[in-house]
Amino acid sequence: MPSISRYAGFFEVVEQSYMCRMKPAVLFSVQEQIQAELESAYLYFVLALQAKDRGLPGVAQWLKVQHDEEREHAMKFIEHAHARGQSVSLGDIHIKRVEWQNIGDLFQAILEHEQYITARIHTMYELAQREHDYPIFPLLQWFIEEQVEEEETVRTILDKIAMVGQTGSSLYLLDQELGRRNTSD
Questions:
Q1: Neighbours of 94 (CB within 10 A)
Q2: Stretch (H or E) spanning 107
Q3: What 3-state DSSP class applies to 167?
Q4: Is the C-alpha dihedral spanning 141, 112, 74, 67 positive or negative?
Q5: How far apart are CA 41 and CA 47, in angstroms?
Q6: Which residue, among 93, 91, 72, 82, has the nearest Cα to 27 in the 3D structure?
């Protein structure tokens, strides 16, 4: 009967592949995406404070929920990395300031930001394919679908703004509608 030591190298390879550790390029992209999601959360929180200060409590509520979602997105990537035996480190938060005169400007900036995040996710998916990092595919597919939903939601808000306007009772009613958003939406 062969000795166990004869198979030691085989078991090391199996153990390493069982852990499904990420290749360095994929891990780096995950770290960057965690950072981008946390920066998105911070951006939406800043915008929520601005909306509240401008008398738009419904818009502020919508943005606070968006803030919470972005933190959850970061946690999905963190948990995936940890499940694969990887450490996660965070950098400083840097955000691009968004100047807005009205909610049309605000939601246009939000749409552009979501499109930026979508492009990042697509780039990660392409990298994962090149690196043959199959365990990350389900997570990235979830994010691809999530980004379709995110962009659609913001485009719908922009369509409503274009339809009803941004002043007076129209703004008041739209603000009320946006304020009904909660974490289960």
A1: 8
A2: helix 103-131
A3: coil
A4: negative
A5: 10
A6: 82
At which residue do the structure tokens 């990298």 appear?
A: 127
Q: Name residue, tokens 């509520």.
A: 61
Which ranges constitute the DSSP H helices of 132-182? 137-164, 168-179
Which domains are delineated in the chain?
22-179 (1.20.1260.10)
Whether 79 contacts 45, CB under 8 Å: no
Asked if residue 46 has pLDDT above 90, the reply is yes
Look at residue 8 and tell me whether its pLDDT is greater than 70: no
Token digits for 26? 């994929």
Q: Report the C-alpha dihedral over residues 52, 57, 58, 64, rounded to 10 degrees.
A: 50
**Whole-structure pTM value:** 0.87
Return the SS3 of 53. Answer: helix
Q: Which of 183, 163, 185, 64 is nearest to 174 (CA)?
A: 163
Decide if 141 contacts 71 (C-beta within 8 A): no
Taking the CA atoms of the chain, what radius of gyration do you get in angstroms? 21
CA 92 distance to own-chain centroid: 17
Contact 121, 147 (CB under 8 A): yes
Tokens 């990537």 sit at which residue? Answer: 77
Percent of the chain with pLDDT over 70: 89
111 vs 106: CA distance, rounded Å: 9
